[in-house]
Design goal:
This protein is of the alpha/beta class. The protein has 2 domains: 147 residues, Glycogen Phosphorylase B (Rossmann fold, 3-Layer(aba) Sandwich); 153 residues, Glycogen Phosphorylase B (Rossmann fold), CATH 3.40.50. Helices cover 37% and strands 17% of the residues. It has a 6-stranded parallel β-sheet, with helices on both faces. A hairpin with a 2-residue loop joins strand 8 and strand 9.
Length: 321
Amino acid sequence: MSKPTPSQRRPLIVRLCNMVGDVALGLPALQLLQDHGHDLHLYGKGWSKALLGGHGWHITTRAGKLGERIAQLRALKQHCLKQDPSFNQRVNTLVMPNSFSSAFEARMAGLKPAGLARDGRSLLLSEAWNARMPSPPHHALEGFWELACRLTATEASAPDRIDLHIDPQAQSKADALLAAHGIQPGFTCIVPYAAGDVDGKDKRWPEFAAFTRQLAARQDRQIVTCPGPGEEDVARQHPDAICLPGVALDVYLGLLKRAALVISNDTGPAHMAAAVGTTVLSTLGPTKPEQWRPWGPQNIIAQGPNKQWPSIADVLQKVDA
């Protein structure tokens, strides 16, 4: 099927999810929408521009207050109407989150949103779809993929890999940062951080610091870690790793691309690394891997029985393999 030219594309507003990992997992769905003739106007968190900057999509950063967000969406609507006078005669917005607020904001802005019929929001949606897939545990990526399939009337399985493009300037900055610290491509990147919990249980592997010490003692490969704001104390528990704090999100993608292996808790950078094609060894405890494992055949899960944490020996064995 030949792809539509820019002049043939139909504008579509897409409300993105609020978490880095979710947006990365939604990327195949966005690409499917584009391939089926939609000119994407994405609406999400400020970091979305850095995460998706290599794809060239229009991205508007969501304001903090409700009234401002509705005004932003109304302005987006007017912009799309200038591009396509028939914009308001069809479903013109896809809300990827399942929240009530995402549908409410779109409806109050005069848009015609579509999404899953969840969180009591069916009356706010121009098209409210019941999920075709069984209730979880299907993977989150497959859920986002289903939304794009419903909107485009497509019957297709989700791709086996995510193809996240890195902005060339961001990759150049990443390479310069690595060179400035004497880090050669092919290093191991550790991500011992994670926000939130699963059913009240911490998503951070409690043996990660001890694991890093043993890993450093048995391999020559450099170990790198990139703490975000507020994660510096965790990074200090891993003195064998070269610490690169405060790395911008788009540059972080470039660093992950140069790693040979990323060892990570259940957190956004694991999905970022998988999306740029790097092998991820995911250390999981209470997380459901059938829903949240890093997507792609190159990735590996380390998890104990009954969703217990893996042992250090098990993770080291998987690293060696």
